[in-house]
Write a structure and sequence with these properties.
about 325 residues; three-stranded antiparallel beta sheet; alpha+beta; extended; single chain; five-stranded mixed beta sheet
Length: about 325
């Protein structure tokens, strides 16, 4: 939430940005305290080149004494105020160095079995925004639940139904995208190093990030996310200057990736079944629509016949 969750309302609280040393000290302290409530506690790998931090993010899972309450955590952390936006809970904890100020701690409670993926998906800040935009044209979507394949035949009419879950195994996803797991597991020294990593994805195409071709969500990111804007407006033009890129140089198309994903993740039978069911449902719907239209037309003909008969009877009378 950028450290501003408590800055609004009738009694706003001051949560100044933290220098790295204080941020890491508090991160370690909160980690230890939350470990008394949850079996799994971790913080995402930090984005590079952050001079200050607006808040502290920790992901947790598997309560030790369920059900947990944010009130119990607030007591241990001496929080002045809490805000609940499940599964995220924000706490205003007294600032250790500035009296009357606070530190914002955001706790995300993950569902059982989703902890590793959600942590993975939040690593390096905006990195997944960059990668996600690059893989989208190939029918791939990475969200907070895992990596998905979209079925083209269904997508235009029902995007949710078109989504086929592939995996939520981080190493498997990195391998399929052609990304180095060792590099991903540690912080990047610079933002440009993170940009280069995003470009190492085997689905990367600079044309995907052209402003006139960006989707609405990406255009919003250009406004709201400085890293995304810097990647599109500064890094890519400089990186591709004087280099001729061919869109299909690697032979990768959405059709090729679709077939590859079905085999790689053993999803062919599931996808074929879904397509078959979708076609059957569509055919059934079309038949019902046709029958409904036929009945409507017949009713109109009957009404016209009745009206003509009445008029004819009246004229004879």
């Amino acid at each position: 939430m950028g450290g501003k969750a408590f800055s609004h309302g009738p009694e706003p609280l001051s949560t100044p940005r933290m220098p790295p040393a204080l941020y890491r000290c508090l991160l370690d302290r909160f980690h230890v305290q939350l470990a008394t409530f949850f079996e799994q506690v971790a913080s995402p790998v930090e984005a590079p080149e952050k001079a200050t931090f607006g808040d502290i993010d920790l992901l947790v899972a598997t309560p030790r004494n369920p059900p947990f309450t944010v009130g119990a955590i607030a007591i241990v952390l001496n929080a002045k105020r809490t805000l609940s936006f499940p599964p995220v809970y924000s706490l205003a904890v007294p600032h250790p160095e500035i009296e009357g100020n606070f530190v914002q701690l955001d706790i995300q409670v993950c569902e059982a079995g989703h902890f590793e993926w959600e942590l993975f998906h939040k690593n390096h800040g905006d990195l997944w925004n960059l990668i996600g935009t690059g893989i989208r044209p190939f029918g791939l979507t990475a969200n907070d639940m895992g990596l998905y394949l979209r079925i083209p035949e269904i997508e235009h009419e029902n995007r949710k139904r078109a989504m086929v879950f592939l995996t939520a195994e981080p190493d498997s996803v990195l391998s399929f995208l052609g990304l180095d797991s060792t590099s991903f597991s540690r912080p990047f020294d610079t933002v440009e190093a993170m940009f280069e990593f995003a470009c190492s994805c085997r689905f990367f195409r600079p044309q995907t990030y052209k402003k006139d071709g960006l989707k609405s969500n990406d255009r919003k990111r250009m406004i709201q996310r400085e890293i995304f804007k810097r990647f599109v407006e500064e890094f890519l033009p400089k990186r591709t200057l004087g280099v001729q890129h061919i869109e299909d140089a690697s032979g990768l198309t959405r059709e090729v990736v679709f077939e590859e994903a079905l085999g790689h993740f053993d999803k062919r039978q599931e996808v074929e079944t879904r397509i078959r069911e979708w076609r059957q449902e569509r055919d059934d719907f079309n038949r019902k629509q046709a029958a409904r239209q036929w009945r409507k037309e017949q009713a109109m003909k009957d009404d016209a016949y009745t009206e003509a008969w009445i008029q004819s009877s009246e004229s004879k009378a």
